């Protein structure tokens, strides 16, 4: 982290994982706050953003980094499961990006970084539901450099999605 106190707000629904990440950030010198956020509840996204701005001021850098892998075999047979993956990865991202983009536009500065997946760059038959939903989420204009944002280039990294073959 840069020198000096940095305020980091972690928003998510898995408090155990957020607390683990917060510990690492605090060790690096950040002041960390955790707020509830659920990508599957787009009607709450605006209120979450407003809560963060009211408490901490303007947003400087926002990082959108969420998604669910699903189970391709199950999801191909269960339309509701396929829709659930798509709702989180795409509709949740569209909502969050729109809320964040509007906030940055109104404050006149800030950036959005979208962490996506190589699966969204090269959609494969073996995981097309996940891949297509991630591809759609990074197609947002807020995920492009033209609009004070960037999609992080796809690369391999070890995480829950990479621990499952396919």
Describe the structure.
This protein is α/β, with parallel strands linked by helices and 166 residues long. It has a domain at 59-153: Rossmann fold. It is built from six helices and five strands, in the order E-H-E-H-E-H-H-E-H-H-E. The protein has helices spanning 15-27, 45-56, 72-77, 79-107, 118-121, 128-137; strands at 6-12, 30-36, 61-64, 111-114, 149-151. The strands form two sheets. It has a three-stranded parallel sheet with strand order 3-4-5, covered by helices on one side. A two-stranded parallel ribbon has the order 1-2. The longest helix has 29 residues, at 79-107. It is globular. It starts with 5 loop residues before the first strand and ends in a 15-residue tail after the last strand. Mean pLDDT is 84; it is low at 162-166.
Sequence-ordered SSE layout with sheet pairings:
Blueprint: E1 6-12, H1 15-27, E2 30-36, H2 45-56, E3 61-64, H3 72-77, H4 79-107, E4 111-114, H5 118-121, H6 128-137, E5 149-151
Parallel strand pairs: 1-2, 3-4, 4-5
Helix pairs in contact: 4-6
Report the strand count.
5
How many DSSP helices?
A: 6
Round the mean pLDDT to the nearest integer and report it. 84
Strand content: 15-25%
Low-confidence stretches: 162-166
Distance between the termini: 35 Å
Shape: globular
Q: Write the CATH architecture name of one domain.
A: 3-Layer(aba) Sandwich
Radius of gyration: 16 Å
H and E order: EHEHEHHEHHE
């Amino acid at each position: 982290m840069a020198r000096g106190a940095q305020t980091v707000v972690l928003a998510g629904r898995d408090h155990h994982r957020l607390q683990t990440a917060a510990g690492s950030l605090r060790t690096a010198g950040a002041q960390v706050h955790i707020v509830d956020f659920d990508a599957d509840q787009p009607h709450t996204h605006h209120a979450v953003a407003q809560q963060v701005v009211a408490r901490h001021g303007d947003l400087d850098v926002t990082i959108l980094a969420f998604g669910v892998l699903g189970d391709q075999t199950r999801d191909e047979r269960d339309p509701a499961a396929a829709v659930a993956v798509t709702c989180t990865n795409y509709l949740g991202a569209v909502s969050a990006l729109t809320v964040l983009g509007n906030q940055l536009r109104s404050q006149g500065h800030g950036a959005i970084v979208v962490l996506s997946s190589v699966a969204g760059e090269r959609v494969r038959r073996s995981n097309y539901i996940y891949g297509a939903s991630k591809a759609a989420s990074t197609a947002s204009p807020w995920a492009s450099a033209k609009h004070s944002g960037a999609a992080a280039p796809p690369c391999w990294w070890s995480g829950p999605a990479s621990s499952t073959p396919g």
